[in-house]
Specification:
Elements lengths: L1 H10 L7 E6 L4 E3 L17 H9 L8 E5 L2 E9 L5 E8 H53 L14 H8 L2
Antiparallel strand pairs: 1-2, 1-5, 3-4, 4-5
């Protein structure tokens, strides 16, 4: 039965680096991807940062995701007791792999935000051009024609703002 459980746990893989193992509350390894370590106590293995961290992980509050360092960088892990035993199933994965999807979402949101800001800026600029620049250009053109002696120009009186008022006073 333990062989079947070990095979099942060793077959679990999530994200790119996620694995599962089983240990007792006392720290004895029941199932691990390196079968040569099965039956040994976590405290006996000094050359594996991951297994040292697992030893600390099984001592923490259950169902609480913990962050720790392993031989391959930062990891997230969680331990849960198998009901009716002193066995704990520990699952862990590299932080980079866990956060990869979240970072992709952040990048997508940033790109969409930049696109929205650019579109909003273009919209505001076109509205400002229509509301301010065009009437000012028309007023300037009218003033230039009048200063050159052309009093036959038609001055539009559209709008209810200062520029329209200036245009209408030139009639």
């Amino acid at each position: 039965m333990m062989d079947a459980i070990g095979e099942y746990l060793n077959g679990i893989q999530f994200f790119d680096s996620g694995r599962a193992m089983m240990v007792t509350d006392a720290g004895m390894i029941l199932s691990y991807e390196d079968h040569s370590l099965e039956g040994k106590n976590l405290s006996e293995i000094e050359d594996s940062r991951l297994l040292s961290s697992v030893s600390e992980l099984i001592a923490t509050e259950e169902d609480s995701v913990q962050r720790f360092r392993s031989d391959n960088g930062k990891c997230y892990g969680i331990a849960r007791t198998v009901t009716g035993t002193d066995w704990k199933v520990v699952i862990y994965a590299r932080q980079r792999d866990v956060m990869k999807d979240a970072m992709l979402i952040v990048v997508i949101i940033l790109c969409i935000s930049v696109l929205i800001i650019v579109l909003f800026t273009v919209l505001v600029m076109s509205v400002l051009k229509r509301l301010i620049r065009q009437p000012v250009s028309m007023l300037t053109d009218n003033i230039e024609k009048i200063t050159q002696g052309d009093f036959t120009i038609e001055i539009a009186e559209s709008g209810n703002d200062e520029i329209s008022f200036m245009n209408s006073t030139m009639k």
